[in-house]
Specification:
2 domains; 295 residues; f41 fragment of flagellin, N-terminal domain; mainly alpha; two-stranded antiparallel ribbon; single chain; two-stranded antiparallel sheet
Length: 295
């Protein structure tokens, strides 16, 4: 087949376009760090990349839930410490009040402090996290206790959970009655109310009876406190697991979608060399005339 000058020029231009396209792809990959800029680059790889991106987005949400759960439980842990301090102070004051050397006036003074301790316990029971009440089950927009009638206020029994994986949900909330005692029974608020009444009436037997009830409230609090600690540990374990899963998923995504920088740079340099050689060759061909062929 006779090769004409026009055919040579067309082939040269075609080769130059191919080299330029390859260089553009390489430059885009180096700029973005991604091997796939459009589905046609790697149809199969795009499918894997989308799946990995979806998995990472879901795991980010699970991690956020886990951190939120840990923060809520950490807040509860602090509140339980405060409640424990209140009960310890109430017990100390009660022991003083049953002392036979204390008179009626001194017991009435202690009653004033017990009233303040009871108000502090109500405040703890109405504590919030990000504007949501912690001890009213699923009714997180309503305060569970009133100052005037906390002993008889009934909290919501619902429990809300946070998803930390596709198959695992961890309970976060604890009902007020679990922590402070059942409404209408010997809950911590009634115990403190009864203690105030006994102190104001100088009822030594009633004051003494309050000691056992304070201890019962403390035991009930400790059980809830231990439950919070166990849940915090579970959230920590799940966070570690999510982090491990994310590392594995990111590694698999990188294999599919991320550019191997050393290889991409080497290929780009190779294409630049080829381009220079093609341009040099094309320049020499274009300089040839009819006289060059006749010599």
């Amino acid at each position: 087949m006779r090769v004409t000058g026009n055919m040579q020029n067309m082939q040269l231009l075609k080769n130059l376009r191919n080299i330029n396209n390859s260089m553009n792809v390489g430059q885009n990959q180096l700029a973005t760090g991604e091997k796939i800029s459009k589905p046609s680059d790697d149809p199969i790889g795009v499918g894997y990349q989308m799946r990995y991106d979806t998995d990472l987005a879901r795991s980010d949400q699970f991690m956020e839930n886990s951190k939120t759960g840990s923060n809520i439980l950490s807040t509860m842990d602090s509140l339980f410490q405060q409640a424990d301090d209140v009960l310890k102070r109430a017990r100390t004051l009660t022991l003083q009040a049953v002392n036979g050397t204390y008179d009626e006036n001194q017991r009435q003074v202690i009653a004033k402090e017990i009233e303040q301790l009871k108000e502090q316990m109500v405040t703890i029971g109405n504590s919030t996290f990000n504007g949501r009440y912690l001890f009213n089950g699923q009714k997180t927009d309503q305060a569970p206790y009133s100052s005037a009638n906390a002993a008889n206020d009934q909290t919501d029994q619902g429990v809300f959970y946070l998803n930390v994986s596709a198959a695992v949900s961890v309970p976060v909330s604890i009902t007020g009655e679990t922590v402070f005692g059942e409404a209408g029974g010997d809950n911590v608020f009634k115990t403190l109310d009864d203690l105030v009444a006994a102190l104001n009436s100088n009822d030594v037997d009633g004051i003494s009876a309050s000691l056992d009830k304070i201890d019962q409230s403390a035991d009930r609090l400790m059980l809830s406190w231990a439950e919070v600690g166990a849940r915090m540990n579970r959230f920590e374990i799940m966070q570690s697991r999510i982090e491990d899963d994310q590392v594995n998923t990111k590694s698999m995504r990188a294999d599919v979608a991320d550019v191997d920088m050393p290889s991409a740079i080497t290929e780009l340099k190779t294409n630049e060399t080829v381009l220079q050689a093609a341009l040099s060759t094309g320049a020499r061909i274009s300089q040839m005339s009819l006289l060059d062929f006749l010599r």
